[in-house]
Amino acid sequence: MKLYDVQRAPNPRRARIFIAEKGLPMPELIQLDLMALQHRQAEFTAVNPWATVPTLVLDDGTAIAESVAICRYFEEISPEPPLFGTGALERATVEMWNRRLEQGLYTHVAQTFRHTNPNMAQREVPQVADWGEANRPRALAQMRMIDAHLADGRPFICGDAFTIADITGGVSLDFARVPKIAMPPELTHLAAWHGRLLARPSWNA
Ligand SMILES: N[C@@H](CCC(=O)N[C@@H](CS)C(=O)NCC(=O)O)C(=O)O
Question: Looking at ligand 1, which residue's alpha carbon is closest to its atom 12?
């Protein structure tokens, strides 16, 4: 099994953290250089025409792209500990929060980064600085909503159990430092939750 990876990029990190949380051996990691546009060269687009990382390649050559799809694959082949919830209600709750954190916090952070960072100009065409800046307050608004959600003292996004929603949210918060979207100091519940994630061994995967 091989995982096309970029060590510092947020989406491959989600997959690596998930695999580490499962206690599974890390697939062989194949590093791509996004700045050199290696992911847009034929060798990789033959594997994943969408040219995104992470992409998992199974031993029979089957390629699975999209972070959440990769995580679901590992959840199915190795159900313990469950990171997508168990039973109808838990699974729906985890799905809801993972999508909220991905389409909310992650997207706004990523759009801020992609549209304001000069290093992204060749990959984000057209790069629209105003759009990037429009996403900054949206990312902050998401942080406030997550802080309010955590105000009941729950240790993790979906309650007592760590799930994929924590991975998506925590990686997004880490990524927010790159376009300098600072966590407002009054968001103490968010900060405490983030601290719990940073303390997990998987966070260094
Ligand atoms: N929805 C995809 C997003 C993947 C994605 O956008 N990955 C970034 C790295 S974090 C990428 O491949 N970027 C390529 C580029 O910027 O051209 C997923 O969850 O895997």
Answer: 52
Pair of tokens at residue 191: 């900060």
Whether 139 and 186 share a structural domain: yes
- φ, ψ of residue 46 to 5 degrees: the values are -70, -30
Task: For residue 71, give the CATH number of its domain.
Answer: 3.40.30.10
pLDDT < 50 stretches in the chain: none
Domains in the chain, number: 2
Atom of ligand 1 nearest to the CA of 65: 20
What pLDDT sits at residue 50?
98
pTM of full prediction above 0.85: yes
Closest Cα to atom 14 of ligand 1: 52
Q: Which of 4, 53, 66 to mutate to test the pocket of ligand 1 (most atoms within 8 A of CB)?
A: 53
Nearest CA among 139, 134, 128, 75 for reference residue 102: 139
